[in-house]
Amino acid sequence: MDAWRRLKKNRMAIFGMALVIFYSLLSLLAAILPIHSFKHQVLDHQYLPPSLTKTAGELLYERQENTSMDAAKNEGRNELNEKEKEELSVLKQRIENETMVFDGKTVKVHQKRYFLGTDALGRDLLARIIYGGQVSISIGLVGTLTAVLIGLIIGAMAGYLGRSFDYIAMRIVDIMYGLPYMLLVIIFMAIFGRNVINLFLCLALVSWLTLARVVRGQIISLKNSEFVQAARVVGASTGRIVFRHLVPNTLGVVVVFTTLQIPSFILMESFLSYLGLGVQAPLASWGSLVRDGVDGMKSYPWLLFFPGLTMTVFLFSMNFLGDGLRDALDPQSKNRL
Amino acid sequence: MEEAPVASDNNILLDVRGLKVHFPIEKGVILKKIVGHIRAVDGVDFEIRRGETLGLVGESGCGKSTTARAIAQLYEPTAGEIYFEGKDLCKLNKGDLLEARMHMQMIFQDPYASLNPRMTIGDIIAEPLQIYRGRGFLQVSSSDIRKRVEDLLEKVGLSRYFVNRFPHEFSGGQKQRIGIARALALNPKLILADEPVSALDVSIQSQILNLLHDLQEEFGLTYLFIAHDLAVIHHISTRVAVMYLGVIVEIAGSAVLYDDPLHPYTKALLSAVPIPDPEVERTRKRIILEGDVPSPDRERHGCYFYDRCSQRMDICSTNIPHLTEMKPDHRVACFLYFKPS
Amino acid sequence: MQNQEILRVENLKTYFNTDDGIVKAVDGVSFTLNQGETLGIVGESGCGKSVMNLSVMRLIPSPPGKITGGDIFFHGKSVLAMSEDELRDLRGNKISMIFQDPMTSLNPFLRISTQLVETLQLHQGLSKSEAREKAIQMLRMVGIPTPEKRIDAYPHQFSGGMRQRAMIAMALSCNPEILIADEPTTALDVTIQAQILEIIKDLTVKLNTAVILITHDLGVVSGLCNKICVMYAGRIVERGSTADLFRDPKHPYTRGLIRSVPRLDKTSHERLYSIPGTPPNLINVPECCPFHPRCEHTMDICCGKFPEETDFGNEHRTSCWLCSDGGGSGGV
Scanning every residue of chain C, which has its alpha carbon at the shortest distance from the alpha carbon of A337? Predict the structure, then answer.
């Protein structure tokens, strides 16, 4: 349709879309990508900085060297003494030969490269970010779709049926708008347990409100159109009118809402994880990674920077895409004749 | 004024008696109070015989569209009876009403708004057939329906290969043809045409009018044709009813109404219509009405046309004239022609 | 009657740049308007009449649209070369416009008095009280009852007919030389239309204003205009005095149009004449007679070149290949 054409012209939106697709592919294909596991811990590899070229072993060696040099300098020497040199060569031996068994495979563990560094338990940050992306994106997607489903049905019925149903539904929406939703989520999680399903559910339960209002508005403006009257004249039932005629014509706003709500969900989830109510170890989400990274912010900045950057870029992309979609689907946008 | 009971006259397809449609005006936020009514249709009587075209003409606010929609049961009448083939539509239960609707379809004014932009035109035209098959009124298969849709498209002058296209791919005139095809799908007897050509260009208007004329001959259709363009009404109707402020002020055969209009409003209306001929225009005497078309929100105790009538008399403000037959098949509601009873 | 030329449009071209291509809304239009004349521009939707009208006052929205050729001369001076100040003096003052829908062309947030008085103060340099007096006078002239009270109302408190009258009052308040009326009565009921057309006729005669009336209604031009231009797909296909055009229309489109309009004074229940086909797509129009796909008398040459104008005397001209070989009425 010409909406697609309009979208193609919006470079930011296409850029955003490309990034979103990239992220989604990475998340989907995570299992077959040649990356390390997100949960295997190598305690020796604690807090390794990101490095594109050096292996873990080289970094460990360097670190040991620097520590020894500093100790020597403190004692007034410029050279390493015998004991320190011996420690270094023992380390070198270990680096070249030590192996560990992961999932039945024996691996020369110090030959690994950690492109984005490691965390407190020696886990690869890149892998954790990718797997964390899986969790965050799916929470965003599933949560949003649930909210959309609830909001669409309630909004459509309120808009079409009007009168008491509409009145009651909208008063419920008004009341819920006034409640501090985070508090509700926290209470919900506290009562029903902290697992991912509950996380989806309770986030969805507080997010359907805006969509319900928007859909209701659209339905009200459409329900007296001539094509709806025509449908009634040919004998269509109320259900048919609402779901076959009215709802498909609200898809524009629904799509835009969805793309703009997903980032919102991810942020909510990350906030909950920050509070410790989100995903539990060993699972990671971008939010929990940020939380873990904040503590060591000064000494190990990469632990905060990379997850934060990843999440921010994703949210930006979704927002650009959502804005672009809104302009493309709105036939009265500014550039029309 | 009372006619013979409807059931015995098989020739009359639609008989409307005393139809009133009032919309309440509400004020207030939480506790809504009804402060008045918009009397869109305020007592309308007419009948349509099989095979004829009754033109319903009037200016904005006169209630002609509301009348059509009330007949189609899109609005619930406040009072009155609508006899379709002898049965009062207002008193039917849901099932019987559905059956009656199969024989009475509607064409709408705005070709852009009357087709669902998200459905293919094949689906749009097939919908009535699918609905009635689903309710058990029709025994047809899906391929029957498909074939019928293609036949209908060709009947209205469009190619059968358009079935999978969307409404926005068509021009205004073509969209109106699609609307006509939809109205024909169930093989109705009566078609309510609500300003079907008002939104179209002049050169397309004549195509659609010709199409409606041909379809009427081929299928023996009966039309209630609503428009504000007197020339169009005059051309296509056998009989014409003139509406003002929710009531019919004059009803007569088409030629008779033009040659011999009785009601002052009809005369003014006819003289106001511009004629595309400079010689005629220059020599015409125009009756210019004072004031504006009023809004139908008051209960009236006198003639509805009193405020703008140049020939008003005292009795006109205290008595309401009812449609009375003055000449054969020519009824008018005006005290210039008879005394109040 | 003075025949001084006030407005001359020469080969005007206004194109729009859209997603789908270049729309040649006005593609080489020329006409003149003399003092005291009422010119009717007749055409259906999409023929370019409104765009041409806006072009004359340089009101075309400039990112998509642009006047790409030709010129417009007001009293011999080129409008396209005018500065912003000169244009401001022109619009509303020397050339005034009224539109189809008075609800959207009157500012709904301002009272009628504000809008009228503002125009008068701006263009005629009157003081506020003088301007108000003049405004009330104008409202009375257009037939609005008790204008001293109604002048302070808001547009939504007026009916459609009254709003259009207020628009006319506003347009004529500065005594312009030209009044451009773009489908002024299309949205009005027929009895109100008659009133408005009477007002336009009376006032323009009284104030000696020239009028350009744009409409699709042949009946309206018959009653009001003495000269007509028929437009199709951005070009004028026939022009002439109203009497000539109706008595002996030359172009197949004009003929078709006149024949396909049902007339109140002629009873005929047979089929109407109808022009086959649909109005043209204005995007990427090839060089040809734009009417040829729908013309009953189309010839080979019609697909190749836009016809030259043939003159039938008394300024009755048409662009049609049928008429151009030999002049005089060909065949039909």
Answer: C64
CA distance A79 to C239: 105
Q: Looking at the complex, does the CB of residue A226 fall below 8 Å from at least one CB of chain B?
A: yes
Q: Does A227 touch chain B (CB under 8 A)?
A: yes
Strands (E), chain C: 5-18, 21-34, 38-42, 65-74, 77-78, 95-98, 178-182, 210-215, 227-232, 235-241, 309-311, 317-319
- The helix (run of H) or strand (run of E) holding residue B15 is strand B12-27
Q: What is the pLDDT of residue C268?
A: 66
Confidence check: pLDDT of C114 > 60: yes
pLDDT score at B8: 47
Taking only the tens place, the pLDDT of each residue in A61-110 is: 888 888 888 888 888 777 777 877 888 888 888 777 777 777 667 777 77
Does the beta-carbon distance from C189 to B60 stay under 8 Å? yes
pLDDT tens-place string over residues C321-331: 888 764 434 44
User: How many Å apart are CA B242 and CA B269, to the nearest integer?
Assistant: 9
* Residues on chain C touching B279 (C-beta within 8 angstroms): 243, 246
| Residue C154 structure tokens | 């808001």
Give how far C237 is from chain B: nearest CA, Å: 16
Residue of C nearest to A335 (CA): C64
Task: Print the SS3 string covering B210-254.
Answer: HHHHHHHHHHCCEEEEEECCHHHHHHHCCEEEEEECCEEEEEEEH
Give the closest residue to A57 by CA, choosing from A5, A131, A108: A108
Q: Range with the lowest mean pLDDT among A31-35, A130-134, C133-137, C246-250?
A: A31-35
The closest alpha carbon to B89, from B1, B16, B6, belongs to: B16
C231 pLDDT band, cuts 50/70/90, is: very high
Quick check: A282 pLDDT over 90? no
Per the CB < 8 Å rule, is B116 touching A227? yes
Q: Identify the pLDDT of residue B70.
A: 94
Nearest chain B alpha carbon to C222: B278
Nearest to C162 among B201, B231, B292 (CB): B292
Q: Which whole-number Å values give the CA distances from C4 to A333, C74, C78, C205, in the listed order? A: 45, 11, 17, 16
Dist. CA C260–CA C243, nearest whole Å: 19
Mean pLDDT of chain B: 89
Say what the pLDDT of residue B126 is: 94
**CA nearest neighbour of A233 among C158, B104, B175:** B104
User: Two tokens at A123?
Assistant: 């886990």
Q: Give the other-Cβ count within 10 Å of B303's Cβ.
A: 27
Residue B287 has what pLDDT? 83
What is the secondary structure of C10-53 as a DSSP string? EEEEEEEEETTEEEEEEEEEEEEEETT-EEEEE--TTSSHHHHH
Task: List the single range of A299-308, B23-32, B227-236 with lowest mean pLDDT.
Answer: B23-32
| Spatial separation of the C-alpha atoms in residues B263 and B332, rounded to whole Å | 7
| Token output for C22 | 């270049």
Contacts of C45 in chain B (CB under 8 A): 201
More confident: A120 or B195: B195
3-state SS assignment for residue A285: coil
Contacting chains of B (3 CB pairs or more, <8 Å) are A, C
CA-CA distances (angstroms) from residue A288 to A132, A143, A199, A267, C172? 8, 18, 14, 11, 72
CA dihedral B289, B290, B295, B299 (to 10 degrees): -100
Amino acid at A40: H
- The mean-pLDDT minimum among A126-135, B40-49, B109-118, B313-322 falls in A126-135
Which of C194, C218, C272 has the CB atom closest to B288's CB atom? Answer: C194
* pTM for this model (two decimals): 0.82
Q: Rounded to whole angstroms, how far apart are CA atoms A176 and A150?
A: 14
The answer to whether C46 touches C279, Cβ cutoff 8 Å, is yes
Closest CA to B337 of B294, B300, B303: B303
